[in-house]
């Protein structure tokens, strides 16, 4: 461990949840509901599953340039293929950006209560993570712009943010972007973009022409239901895409992922059903939490963070015993909060009933 760079030494391993089968055995349950990782409760796009069934060329390396998927993405997004970078999940794109632009001692800015991978990729490069205090659990974009120094190379902002579900509007984004010097890369993480139905919610891709230092990241893990395949992408100006392409591992994205992603992209029914199921699920959970007199952070994504009013771990454990897995947010500095992913209406009902029971049991 001493040989690792000092940033890497500071990192704690990311702790993934146990496999459901293992938990079911441990707890003696057979019907655990997992609402912990912001996955799509409707499952994968059916078009994607169909495309995977006809895949016979697994003995060949993938198309390392992602030709076909990039063409489909470029068409859908209204950009050129040379503006796209494919990643093994959008996490991979975040990592590529850090590796390409952060040197030891450089600073990367992100918000308090932001996605755990931003400090991870920053520290792995032995750069300095700068967490700016949040504003009511959302990004304080003015304070983030003010935090820029000579050493700042990258700023990560997520819209909506995970784990809080907060968002900022077009006006706030434009004002922020206009304040950031061009030498600083702004990563606008839109992993939950497709879920948002607010009328003033901005589309980052529309701003790429104006801001050459902007990189928008998106994923197939959420609304497309392909988290297990690991595929996401970045959109930016061709010069940055070229740099990301240089540091990328050859064949970083596998064939099934690209084939499924391309099919999912045109699966309008699955996208629409997922969005509308999520929107009604958000209301169902928000109303349920209100009835239980629990404070929640208003969310536009596919999850809600709520305040247990006390250490959330016993509530988390109680829910687990009832067969419902949620995500405790102690690791994010929110020890009284749990985050629940929006499930199907039956799953949401199960979560709310289990929560009521756990709270009543004290
Ligand atoms: N950004 C945010 C804000 C996320 O919540 C997630 C998933 N938890 C990701 C990026 C990464 O998603 P993936 O690597 O599956 O594309």
UniProtKB/TrEMBL annotation:
Name the catalysed reactions. Answer: L-histidinol phosphate + 2-oxoglutarate = 3-(imidazol-4-yl)-2-oxopropyl phosphate + L-glutamate
Gene3D superfamilies registered for this protein in UniProt = Aspartate Aminotransferase, domain 1, Type I PLP-dependent aspartate aminotransferase-like (Major domain)
Q: Which pathway is recorded for this entry?
A: Amino-acid biosynthesis; L-histidine biosynthesis; L-histidine from 5-phospho-alpha-D-ribose 1-diphosphate: step 7/9
One Pfam family here: Aminotran_1_2
What is the superkingdom listed in this entry's lineage? Bacteria
Q: Does the keyword Chaperone apply?
A: no
Q: Name one GO molecular function term.
A: histidinol-phosphate transaminase activity
Which cofactors are reported in the record for this sequence?
Answer: pyridoxal 5'-phosphate
What's the Enzyme Commission number for this chain? Answer: 2.6.1.9
Q: InterPro entries from the xrefs?
A: Aminotransferase_I/II_large (IPR004839), HisP_aminotrans (IPR005861), HistidinolP_aminotransfase (IPR050106), PyrdxlP-dep_Trfase (IPR015424), PyrdxlP-dep_Trfase_major (IPR015421), PyrdxlP-dep_Trfase_small (IPR015422)
Which SUPFAM superfamilies did the record assign? Answer: PLP-dependent transferases (SSF53383)
Query: Which key words tag this protein in UniProt?
Result: Amino-acid biosynthesis, Aminotransferase, Histidine biosynthesis, Pyridoxal phosphate, Transferase
Question: What positions are modified (N6-(pyridoxal phosphate)lysine)?
Answer: 222
Which stretches make up the Aminotransferase class I/classII large domain? 30-355
Q: How does it assemble?
A: Homodimer.
Family, per entry:
Belongs to the class-II pyridoxal-phosphate-dependent aminotransferase family. Histidinol-phosphate aminotransferase subfamily.
What is this protein's name? Histidinol-phosphate aminotransferase
- According to its UniProt entry, this protein's organism is Alcanivorax jadensis T9
What is the taxonomic lineage of the source species?
Answer: Bacteria, Pseudomonadati, Pseudomonadota, Gammaproteobacteria, Oceanospirillales
